[in-house]
Amino acid sequence: MATALVELDKSFKSELSRDYGTIEVRVVVLHKKVEVVTNDEDIPEDVEPEEVLPSETSKSPLANYLEDPKRGKECVVFLVNGQRQEAWDNTYIQRDLGFKYLRNRTMIVVDLDGLKPEALAEIMQGSREHFYPGTVYHSIVGRLSATLRKDPDLESLEAEAEREISELRAGDQAVKQALDQLIEAHHQQGDHLEEGAGESGPGGLGHGIPFHTSQQEVIVDPDSPLPGKVASGPYLISEPISATIRLRPDESVDISVRSYPPRISTTPGLISCGDFSNDRGTRV
Amino acid sequence: MPIEPTKLNSNVDPELLLRRILSASTSNAVEEILATLPIRNEQEYTFNSDDDKRDWKQGMLHWFPVGGDRGNAGRIKLANRPINPIAERTINAMESLIEMMRRLELLNDSSAPPPGSPREAVRRYFRLPPLDQLQAIGTIDGQDARKYAREIARQIMVELMFDKKAREFAAVIRDYGIGQAPAKIHRTLLSLGSSDKGDKPYLIGVFGQGGSSAYAASKYSTVVSRREMRLLDGEADGIGWTIVKHIFPKGRRDDYFAYLASHPDGRVPILSPSTADAVDFKHGTRFAHVDYDFGSGGAAITRNFFQMLNHVLFNPVLPFDTNVSGTVATIRGNGYRLSNLKTERKAIDKRFAGLTIDQ
Fold this sequence. Notes:
The structure holds 2 protein chains of 2 kinds.
Chain A: E1 2-15, E2 22-36, E3 76-80, E4 83-88, H1 91-96, E5 106-111, H2 117-123, H3 135-149, H4 152-188, E6 235-239, E7 256-260
Parallel strand pairs in A: 3-5
Antiparallel strand pairs in A: 1-2, 2-5, 3-4, 6-7
Chain B: H1 14-23, H2 27-35, E1 62-65, H3 73-76, H4 83-108, H5 118-126, H6 134-137, E2 139-140, E3 143-144, H7 145-153, E4 156-163, E5 168-175, H8 213-217, E6 220-226, E7 239-247, E8 256-261, E9 270-271, H9 273-278, E10 284-292, H10 301-312, E11 320-324, E12 327-331, H11 334-339, E13 342-357
Parallel strand pairs in B: 4-11
Antiparallel strand pairs in B: 1-8, 2-3, 4-5, 5-10, 6-7, 6-10, 7-8, 7-9, 11-12
């Protein structure tokens, strides 16, 4: 079971135009987090064998206060004698009031008991489900929107929610960058799973990496003699090393190639595939 | 020759019959009751408002159109959500409690002015504020307001039953309110649009037919009512009962809803006060809507029932109890539930601040 916390709970009365009477509005904004209390609830008796019951963890703060959170987000309700006679979903909160970041946790309750009997008679329908969209209705909607749109408390909560979302996005970006760095570093170290290991490729080249049969090839390895061949140079070094290069469509890759020992300064730049002539070179 | 109201055969045990009616929660159970009763075939009797005795057969019960109107389907099929008829019935139950208190008040003081609104009536007769203010008020007559409201709620019970074998729901709304004299049930509980609430500002409904939409949502409905003994207004005591169902006349397209009547004027069958006492039915009304159609619904109905009622009766004038497959809970509406939430450290609490916004 989930219990919500409330951030704002305010009520006010408002006089309608044309002497239609008054409406009372209550706005409740819940905290975006809910306290989840797990209970051993019985499985409902009418549950169908294949039916998936709603998950408590997936519920929004308002979920427990809506008729059917899966179908209708009827978070704007109009009451006559406490009975819901009309309900709107949260697009009103987002589009008409402009509180995008509060839309999933705001309940607006409009009590119409203060309407004059004639005004009430005009909007009530026999079906008791929707109001007649005439002048009284539009007077109610206009007053409601005008009052709530500039409500300082709601504006303040909206700004706060927006700021939190921005911080969250900034945090997300930082995490993404860190992950990118980690992945890149992983690629850089891709040949370090085993000393001297090469990348496996279509021809089964490489050493110590699964998926292909190991095949010996003479390569130059200045740091470790296994399994490459120790050489004092000169030879070419690519960065990143060829085993870790990933070529993807429509993506450029910077590869620098320099000689060892560096007789002259090399300038990093893009190279095209080429033959570095002998078995001691690095293949790209 | 005047037609006498149909009396049940001497081989029908009235107490057993009443018990069976009160316990019937599946269409099978209702059909078993119907099989024991002398009922005219629905295709052989057609109600005629110009001559209500035409085709009537003495000694039998007849399927009589609800509201005395063969064209009643359009006024009954008004529910566009399964929960709404149950909410309407619950509202009717609240009204029956308020009306009982008002009538008892008039017995003591015939000049007592009527309450100006349902909320005022509830405050006067039950000392309850709007339920979303229960939390703020804290106590009523020295009692915890929440517990006090729970005691009041016991006078209305909304029960949802599910029969696993039949895979059928039954929605039962029982109130311990004023009830109806059995001879008047056809002109009150089974009427359509002939409300006497218009001059009673303390009642809620206006159209006088909202609860009838429950007939369309169920295969059968049983209706049982008994008037509060002090408020019989000269009518005979007793308990009236009937069963409502959907009739599809052969070869016609004008389906309608009808109930079992014992007389061409629409009166329902009546059992004696002693029979009512034997099953402990003192006063009030009970509607049971059997094989209630909730549609596919998605999530399990029994799980969502509490939540649905709290939303459609968002801030009801009176609290009431629900019993969903044996689990009893009091409903005070979402208005109360939202007021009962814990506040955040930085919460802006301006509840009922009396702030008035001018144009």
